[in-house]
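Notes on consecutive records. When two proteins share a document, each keeps its own sequence and its own token line. Never mix them. Below: protein one.
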Amino acid sequence: LPISKEHSSTASLPPRPAGASVVNHLMTTGSGAFPTKALLKRLSSKEGTLWSEYLPESLRTKNFRSSRSDSNNDRENDKSRSPTELRSLAPQYKPKGLSVRGKVWELSQRAQGCREVQLALENADDGNRLEIALELKSHVWEATRGPHANHVLQKCISVVAPESLQFVVDELSKGNLPVQAARNKYGCRIMQRLME
């Protein structure tokens, strides 16, 4: 059925003056449903939004600031800085000094915990490194696919003596696991470390 002008949502809107943006017109007339008002309020905020830069110019307000252009400016500024200076700007991890003994697998599955385990691996002597690494035994395949645990496994591979890591190779060489690991976004990193 055709919609009559009486039932059309645009029938009640006053005509927009020539040259006025849609946003400014709707904001000044107070027209539009609640979602429209919320959207217009968000578009007129000073921050802008990631998706709003894709809107037509007529829907953008003068306060509109593209987040993409800001990130491009940041990238340009970063190019002129030295790697040491960039590292100093990055948020630094502050270790909590947790004891990782007996809970390596548990800690490796969380963002903060995996950092603690990596720190413990870096600071431990060879014997303690091996003890920490052996706590991952029977969890190697899970760690290979984990977003946090893969970092712990990579650290183990890089700091523990290669002859002590045979359990890692054994667990990853079962059946089709090497192919699956190589195709996984985290597992491919483990395969690279093993080949280095």
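Protein two starts on the next line and is unrelated to protein one.
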Amino acid sequence: EIFYRREADIEGTWKNVSVSGVEGYLSALGVPEPMKSTLVNEKDTSTFKRLPGGLISMTSTSKMSAGEVVFKYGEQFSFEQPGMGTMSGVISCNKETLIMAMKVGSKTISGTMKVTGDFMVSEFEVDNMPCSRVKYIAVRA
């Protein structure tokens, strides 16, 4: 018997074309100036690649990027986030939506990344504070 699981089509390169709420998000994370001002106006790209064994590689052109982050759905992973320390978390996939929970220091980041065709809408929040909610809209590059 063959079993297929539908997952979000995240593979490829995604370019952020719109963002709202990034200042509140970065403030809630405690990102200092001048890094905060640099990140507010950033239009970065992210690339996702599937690897053997169900692993997924993610890289970003963001100045806050941790380089390559490799994860597997449903399993805890961690990486060094420049200027913030060690981040750990888990990502799961439900059809076209990735659901994420991350921990950095005493802060908890929760979020979703929904893929529809060539669009990805991502929403993240720090410690369930509505004022920290950020929304990104990206297109497949």
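For the record: Helices lie at 22-29, 35-40.
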